[in-house]
Design goal:
2 domains, six-stranded parallel β-sheet, binds D-glutamic acid
């Protein structure tokens, strides 16, 4: 049995269906530079957003086991809205010794910020059709009452996969991706500051952070675009502080390892493009053994 007892000398595991969670890893490293991180990109099985809950739960269980096999895990950040919606309760039940932090679309900050009372939410089908997001929607509306808000939910079919595939393309080769972003935003309705327009846009998928510039082009400069990386990093920091698992040497720089079940070349490209990390940090995941 691998060592699973969290300790101050362990690492923080982070995973996503692919490279989207690197946006969360970026925020985690900025928040806790002294910590060690192991990131798992399940690109060989991406996207999760158009798969069944059972499939996503099985993948999350496997990845958790892989992370735990690498040494003492302090916490695991599920850096994927779809995986959080489908699997986080199962993970917490199966591995009660591991603190899990999930990622959810930022409906609460959005309702506090909107003035027009219309908020756009982009996410995967899996996230936006989940009972978890419906509960969250009802909870934030009840808490914000009497302020009311309409959340315009757009399941962005194909977008996470297109972002995943973009990593190995030239930086200038973005037309198809830009068109896909535009298509989804257009389907949501008008953005702006006037009554009836959406003045706030929630990025409910960690992949979408990497196309924020393209989304901004379409919605204009005044719309507030909200992602969750920073909030999740702060929450993870708080959690580790509460349970006394923070690395005690603030000047010691932590390290980071990235693993993929997909293409190593694609991971290396994403790591250098978005995190300034070299190929030395990137590894191909071992062949999987049966789930225990
Ligand atoms: N990055 C993921 C999320 O936050 C999922 C994308 C996908 O695999 O469909 O939902």
């Amino acid at each position: 049995m691998p060592a699973t007892e969290p300790s101050t000398s362990g690492f923080i595991g982070v995973f996503d269906s692919g490279i989207g969670g690197l946006s969360v890893l970026q925020a985690l490293r900025a928040e806790m530079p002294q910590e060690r991180f192991v990131y798992w990109a399940d690109s060989g099985h991406a996207p999760y957003g158009e798969r069944s809950d059972a499939f996503v739960i099985e993948r999350c269980m496997r990845i958790t086991q892989q992370l735990m096999a690498q040494g003492p895990v302090k916490a695991i950040v599920v850096a994927c809205n779809t995986a959080t919606a489908a699997a986080i309760e199962h993970l917490r039940a199966a591995y009660p010794q591991v603190p899990f932090v999930g990622v959810e679309p930022a409906l609460k900050p959005a309702i506090a910020l909107t003035r027009t009372g219309r908020v756009g939410v982009m996410g995967t089908q899996g996230t936006l059709n989940s009972s978890r997001i419906e509960k969250l929607r009802q909870m934030v509306l009840a808490e914000a009452s009497p302020k009311s808000c309409e959340f315009v939910m757009q399941a962005c079919e194909g977008l996470a996969l297109a972002i995943e595939q973009q990593t190995v393309k030239a930086l200038s080769d973005t037309l198809a991706l830009e068109n896909l972003c535009k298509q989804h935003l257009q389907a949501m309705g008008p953005f702006g500051q006037n009554a009836g327009e959406m003045d706030t846009l929630v990025l409910g998928c960690t992949h979408y952070v990497f196309v924020e510039d393209m989304l901004r082009k379409w919605v204009g400069p005044a719309v507030q675009i909200i992602s969750t990386g920073e909030a999740v990093a702060k929450q993870t920091h708080r959690l580790l502080t509460d349970v006394n698992r923070m690395q005690a040497l603030p000047n010691k720089s932590g390290d980071v390892q990235l693993w993929t079940t997909g293409s190593l070349h694609a991971l290396e490209a994403a790591a250098s493009r978005w995190l300034d990390l070299t190929a030395a940090h990137c590894h191909l995941a071992p062949v999987e053994s049966p789930l225990s």
